[in-house]
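Continued from yesterday's entry.
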Amino acid sequence: MFKIKAKPTFVAPVPIPVPGGEPEPLTLVFRHKTRDEMNEYLKRTAAIGTNDVGPLMEIIEGWQDVDAEFSKDALQELVQNHHGSVTAILDTYVVELAEGRRKN
């Protein structure tokens, strides 16, 4: 049965750019937002800085198969070491909310 109310969280792999190599998948547990909540979030975070993990903490609940426990400090370390990670995380989040994963 299709459920009108979305699950509060969802899991999605995020391709994190890795210097000198191919992007590596980081499996994140995201918090769901309604359409209105997402529009408000995007307006607030339009000028997100690559060093500011506060807005990311609002949408990420945790991660899977990572060598560190999820925390604001660990997320900050990820952002510092993988320069394209903020864009990759936000792009994946928006696509997952809007489209989900589609089978070929």
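--- second protein ---
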Amino acid sequence: MDGLINRNSTPPRLFDGRVLPRADINRMLEAAVTAPDHGLVRPWRFHIVEGDARNKLGELFAKALLEREPFAPTSAIEKEKGRPLRAPVIVAVGAKVDSSRAPKVPVVEQVVAAAAAMEHLVIAAQSMGYGAIVLTGRNAHDPMVRKAFDLEGQDELLGFVYLGCINEPTPAKERPDPAEFTSVWS
């Protein structure tokens, strides 16, 4: 319960650059695939980006930016190239939708199942002492980026989970009172 209640997004500036052992990443993914999944569609897709592949992802982000904004300034292009370098490991999480399963398992339920898997991944990482944050932005919705992760049509690229080792705890965040969002329906 403490892990859930104290879960916080770790700012990438807190990552110390150490590489996560693959066994730990695999353990996080084991937790991710325990997410609720109506109809056992298993729509989640995980793409591990590490090492030099982070530079390749940065190039993809820059190319996508230039496709959207052909006259983007050099500073914006360089910023896109540098985004993936903020963490030693990134897990791109997608929802690969099986339209043949609808209406029994609607598309939204498949996307939600993949989103739950992404949150399981984050919670697993933090329970293991790592920092984690989900980042999206325009790249998560860009057709060129989505295609690079084998997503099309109703598929969704839900986000990029940045993972890293940390030497200091993620700063606590003020939480809302659940009562503000809760009612008893009758």
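The mean pLDDT is 95. DSSP finds six helices and four strands in the chain. Will compare against the first tomorrow.
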